[in-house]
Records
---
Amino acid sequence: MTDVTLSPDGDIITLDHGGATARFHAIWLRDNAWDPATRAPGNGQRLIALRDIDVGVHISAARLAGGQLQLTFAPEAREIAYDPDWLMAHRYDRDEVRAPGALPDGAEAWDAGLMENVPTGDFSAVRDHAEARRAWLAQIARYGFAKLTGGPVRDGALFDVVDLFGHVRPTNYGAKFEVRTEVNPTNLAYTGLGLQAHTDNPYRDPVPTVQVLYCLESTAEGGENMVVDGFAAARRLRTENPEWFDVLSGHCARFEYAGEAGVRLQSRRPMIELDPDGILRAVRFNNRSAAAITDVPFDVLPSYYAAYRRLGEIIDDPAMEVSFRLEPGESFLVDNTRVLHARKGYSGSGTRWFQGCYADMDGVRSTLAALETPRQEAAE
């Protein structure tokens, strides 16, 4: 059953459809019209600006015809058809109360229990088959990371991984960087030391939102890769101590990198970043790149450091960790705004050669959405 009710002033319609009820304002409906005069048929981009909609826009008539909702807008006297399913899928009339620290839509928090089923795809299948690629990208969107096995063992093979969803984002490290032991390295990542779980490049603005690490050689003992869900860590901190969560999300930290000539990267962002509606947006945690904290009030600083210390303890907790060893031709990708990665120490004997590069999550999400559209259309 579908039914529509128009308010006396024409400012609001109430739509009953598919067992749900939602209200919509006239200005929102006019702005989101899909008629050819409002949206380009080829790409869906708007052909009008908000200034082109009368400030006094209202609905003079509403009716259902042929499964469509027909609305007449005044004062322009234009009738526009709407798909009730589309409207209900995009309704904003909800009674949701989201506590700070809510997960983004589609994300699932995880801990060490995920080690029993590490998100993984096969390189050849993901490259050659749309459904395998969709499933692999869906795991990244859900968990913030995934492995890829069975790839080629050659210099630059990590670019083949990025080609599956997007484009490489070059940095001062180049289009790619080498991760193996060096003498007098410019970055601790290039030593055999174990590293605390961290997000990469927090000193950049904007930060690269994807990191790919690709294994080319691995005969050294140790060096297992580890990942930790930063969103799960932040939510655990909030459960334990909401005040500490608030202090880390309410004040900015500072990060910097000046490890090579001609480079001095700096940023100012909170360690736990929230959207205005409280949804987790990003976690930045990297002790090696942390600069002096100068944006926390004097009286709040002790609480800030207590919260900072506790977040680090949660991140270090083995119960939060998923670890795995990569063999040549294997790689993994992380959402660098969410998942912290680490490496256990490895011995000086044998070899260990990884290559890394950066890309962005908009490519992951775009490719995934494009692959999911045919599935949705087939289901309809």
---
Amino acid sequence: MSLARSPAPTTVAEFLAWEERQELRWEYDGFAPVAMTGGTVAHDTIQSNLVIALGNRLRGTPCRVHGSNLKIEVAGRVRYPDVFVACTPFNPRETVRRDPVVVFEVLSSGTARTDRVEKMHEYWETPSIQRYVLIEQDAVSAMAFTRGEESWSGRVLWPGSVLALPEIGIELPLDELYEGLDPAALRDPPPPPE
């Protein structure tokens, strides 16, 4: 979620050096740093379920699942996707991966436009990314985009659907990502602030 912009670095290299000295997490949108904020219980539950499901299925393969504590460099920008998978050797001291294969974002009202428009373009401009998955947090639903020759090709997933991830050799039942959440409660409006 975006919170605020900060005047500071103007290149990826300057941003990475600057961010290392910050207490908060920041993304770089190609122009300026953008502070990251927290999310909802639903967002965190879906993200955690996804990391567990992917990690269990990828055990013993060259692919690794990473959560939102690790950043990726895409199209001259730096992002913290909710979850991503990379399949190349890595240095354990790295803070940036530059070759993700599959990227997942859990949509929220504050970031949906960025995820659907800006990041979709950035991820298209990153040839290693073969699949981009947008997961709804307000309903059991997702959109899975596969890289084609000239553009993304999308597929809608509903309750009972299976998310095929041939790029990394696994499949995930969509319902598994919502384990621990009541689908009816996802649709309810949020409680008013106290």
